[in-house]
Amino acid sequence: MLRSYSFVTLLKEVGMLKRSLHIMLVVLMGAVFGVVSTQSASALTYTVYNQPGDHLVNGRYWKTSCEMYSSTVVRCSTNIWATKVVKSNGRFYNHNGWVFNNMTYLPSGKAAWKNNPLATNKQWTAADGHRWKTECNTAATGKNGCRSYVLSRNVVNTGGKFVSQSAWLFNNMVQFSSKGTPAQTTIPPKAPAVANVPVEKAFKTPVAAAAGGAGGTCSASYYWEGQMTANGERFNTNDLTAAHKTLKFGTRVKVTNPANGKSVVVRINDRGPYVSGRCLDLSKAAMSAIGGISAGHIKVSYQVVS
Q1: What is the enclosing helix (H) or strand (E) of 100?
Q2: Are residue 231 and residue 296 in the same domain, yes or no?
């Protein structure tokens, strides 16, 4: 009886050991698979470059808009509020407004970029003649990404002087999806509203800077002979143009005949007149518009408008 009891007990203990091992195996597998399941791809972290709307980051205002570049690729374009250079009446000026910063193509599969130069290490010339270059998987782009640059000529303000220069400018980045970065196939939600977002105003050329003087009164004559004007264009007596000794080419001037109240706006494209007492030499069409043809030269008032 003692041996029988020990044998039965031994069998029971063996059975319990198997069940214990089974339970431990299940727990262990669960723990292992539990660790694996926590390594899922992380969601997109929103930034000024991938979330539409207004942003205020590091004291700077940003504005981003997003659209579907294709059925599976989202493209966002980001502008920044900054001082830029604008050209008006042949002169350059500083102007505060929205300036293009860059484009961002949100994470997508590499298959969506097959044969696209924006996702291939290469240089190429676009249909509009601009030269481009793209680099991928570099220190600048990071893994699973590309950056593209365009060779562009721009005017910059250097030490108070406007200088034209040619340089490679960063234009866009392409991000590829991966095991840890899922594809973003829909436009992200709009960012929370930001207070006091600046609104760009249309640039207005300073009158004094454009003209070197706001206006005045003088005697005006007219001419009609076909010739080359001082700014290099062929004179057309039927155009509303005029000659002035100092006003910048392209300046628009309103000329009024006080005798009848008629006015005309002319564009300065020539130099002269060089007769004492006269400040404007109008085209025949301009003089006709204010009723001065018969007199040959008349007293006028003039005002720079742009």
Answers
A1: strand 91-108
A2: yes
Quote the domain boundaries for residue 251: 207-304
| Residues 162 and 235 occupy one common structural domain | no
Question: Is pTM beyond 0.85 here?
Answer: no
Question: Which are the contacts of 154, defined by CB distance < 8 A and separation ≥ 6?
Answer: 85, 164, 165, 166, 167, 169
User: How does DSSP assign 42-66, residue by residue?
Assistant: PPPPP-TTTS-EEEEETTEEEEEEE
Number of Cβ within a 10 Å radius of residue 293: 15
Extract the tokens encoding 216: 């005045």
Q: Quick check: is 39 in a domain?
A: no
Number of structural domains in the chain: 2
Q: What does the block give as tokens for 265?
A: 């706006």
User: What angle (nearest 5°) sits at the alpha carbon of residue 64, between those of residues 151 and 204?
Assistant: 75
Q: Are both 172 and 212 inside the same structural domain?
A: no
- Note the maximum CA span of the chain: 148
> Using one digit for the tens of pLDDT, what is the confidence trace for 86-128?
988 778 889 999 999 999 999 999 999 999 999 999 999 999 9
Tens digit of each residue's pLDDT (9 = 90 or more) over 162-211: 899 999 999 999 999 999 899 999 999 999 999 999 999 999 877 554 44
CATH number of the domain encompassing residue 269: 2.40.40.10
Tell me, yes or no, whether 157 and 214 share the same domain: no
> Is residue 86 domain-shared with residue 159, that is, in the same domain?
yes
Residue 146 CA from chain centroid, whole number: 20
